[in-house]
Amino acid sequence: MGGPGAGPECKIGPRPVAERNPPVAHGAARGGPGLKFVSLKICRECFYTVFEDEIHSVIVENQLFKPGERIAIGASGGKDSTVLAYVLSELNRRHNYGVDLFLLSVDEGITGYRDDSLETVKRNEVQYGLPLKVVSYKELYGWTMDEIVKIIGLKNNCTFCGVFRRQALDRGAALLKVDKLATGHNADDIAETVLLNILRGDIARLSRCTSITTGEDGPIPRCKPFKYTYEKEIVIYPFHWLPNLNQLFTYAYFKRLDYFSTECIYSPNAYRGFAREFIKDLERIRPRAILDIIKSGEDFRISTSTKMPEQGICERCGYISSQARLFRMPNCARKPASLKWCKACVLLEGLNRGLPKLGIGRSRGLNNDRKKDMKQSHGTENIGSKQCGTLDF
Amino acid sequence: MQLTLEFGGGLELLCDSVKIHKVNVNPQDGEDKLNMKDLLAWVRTNLIKERPEMFMKGDSVRPGVLVLVNDCDWELSGQLDTTLEEKDVVVFISTLHGG
After folding, report:
1. Which of A151, A236, B17, B19 is a good FRET partner for A208, with 20 to 30 A between their CA atoms?
2. Rounded to an integer, what distance in angstroms lies between the CA atom of residue A222 and that of residue A190?
3. Rounded to whole angstroms, what are the CA distances from A337 to A331, A334, A366, B84?
4. A374: confidence class by pLDDT, cuts 50, 70, 90
5. CATH number at residue A285
6. Cβ contact (<8 Å) for A280 and B69?
């Protein structure tokens, strides 16, 4: 096999951003294999340029950041958020976004998983010079995931974790007083989520999971600068940087890509795993399928007769929550029907009262929960519970 | 033929947690060249100690595993048909987990 490389094999040279197509059209225009790294045969240096410029143009075209804003980067220590933190701090400097960047991590309290990855985030804090805030389930809710799993077992634990994480990020963002939260969700993640929401018939999530910015009417909008970025490229990017970066980045990259040890120890996550493999199988045949699934998700028109959830305010914690996730609190001294809590509060109340199955599943209200619990005690699988909270966008 | 094989993204756990392997692989009898297909079969037999299905699917790598030959995406060099030469460096990285 001949040398890789720079020079003759590279089909493009660094050129002004304006001359290039925007990312989606860029992918579409490629025809064959959608990966520019593949179809355009570009060299390492051009790959960096293309990778960074595409993310820059996504940020500019979608007006993700405004000068003076404070932006939190949801940082897990994984490859996506590590690359996001690195790229955003580079682009902020290079293109004068004028934003203040922060790292925000959630400590779920999972021994042997999150404690290790948090060490990575702490290294990133030093390396990129970005202030880090860690919020923990223990301090927010009084429970670690280790403790929750001891009570409820491995069946519905991902429901707790997902619901709590979402709110924990909101609360951490509020503590940091940021205007927006940027997450490392990549194109593969979003395509997976589109498929899963279709499989689940979750129209509300289907219609919002492809939005590059969500929650603009809520307290903390979230955005996904990697929405059009192939996971493959995110992996190649730090790989090629390896020789040029110090050990810390090497560590962050390899440590967290270590999938057996870093896949959450409590999450078999079989359902999403199938969708993930399916996407990767499709990618091998036609890489652009990933972007096309996102396009399909964007272009779905929800029929006007479909009942959509409305947003409400939790009467316990005051956080905004979609109506679908507002649950009537059972056995309440006040008029039960009048008290609506968000799912995090219902789950927490269940834990604290020794009724951990409260709020599990997709039911809305106690009666349904009871029916479900009864069914479960007769050995029926609770199909309502989600495998992993990262489904929520 | 001397090759350097590198496993990342968790794949190293399939081969005793060793990331970099300096190996000697020769073309099969009657062949004068070694290609990636031969190498994958050799790796599966000689290096992968557990769960080979995490590394391979059929006679190729599992979708989601990146392959770089001398730092170049193997999709550019013909994937399984890529011919290997003395001192080539082949890297396998899984992208399947770890966000």
Report:
1. A236
2. 14
3. 10, 9, 11, 71
4. very low
5. 3.40.50.620
6. no
| Total domains, chain A | 2
A74 marked as binding residue = yes
Q: Quick one: B2-94 is in which CATH superfamily?
A: Beta-grasp domain (3.10.20.30)
Residue A338 and residue A335: Cα distance in Å, rounded?
A: 6
φ, ψ dihedrals at A301, nearest 5°: -110, 125
Q: Which residues of B69-86 are buried (b: 16+ CB within 10 A; e: fewer)?
A: bbbbbbbbbebeebbbee
**Which of A267, A299, A331 is a domain's end point?**
A299
ipTM: 0.86
The per-residue pLDDT for range A198-249, each reduced to its tens digit, is 998 888 888 889 999 998 877 899 999 999 998 888 877 765 443 333 333 3
Q: What is the pLDDT of residues A296-355, one digit of tens each?
A: 999 887 776 766 666 678 888 877 766 545 666 655 555 444 467 888 888 888 888 887
Interface contact A254-B8, CB threshold 8 A? yes
| Those residues with Cβ within 8 angstroms of residue B23's Cβ, 6 or more apart along the chain or in another chain | B2, B3, B4, B5, B46, B47
With respect to residue A84, please indicate whether it lies within any of the assigned structural domains: yes
Same domain, residue pair A107 and A214: yes
List residues in chain B touching A: CB distance below 8 A: 8-10, 12-13, 19, 62-64, 66, 68-73, 75-77, 82-85, 88, 91, 93-99
Which residues make Cβ contacts (< 8 Å) with residue A273, sequence separation at least 6?
A: none
Higher pLDDT, A280 or A30: A280
Tell me whether residue B98 is exposed, middle or buried, using C-beta atoms within 10 angstroms of its C-beta: 0 to 12, 13 to 18, 19 or more: buried
A393 neighbourhood in chain B, CB within 8 Å: none
Return the structure tokens found at A100: 């203040």
Q: d(Cα A325, Cα A312) in Å, to the nearest integer?
A: 9
Count of CB atoms situated within 10 Å of the CB of A95: 15
Please report whether residue A125 resides in a domain.
yes
Q: Provide the token pair at A281.
A: 């199988």
User: Is residue A250 domain-resident?
Assistant: yes
Band (pLDDT 50/70/90 cuts) for residue A382 is very low
User: HEC string of A322-370?
Assistant: EHHHEEECCCCCCCHHHCEEEHHHHHHHHHHCCCCCCCCCCCCCHHHHH
Where b means 16+ CB within 10 Å and e means fewer, A21-55 reads ebbbebbeebeebbbbbbbbbbbbebbbbbbbbbb
- Strand pairing of A180-182 and A70-74? parallel
CA distance A340 to A332: 11
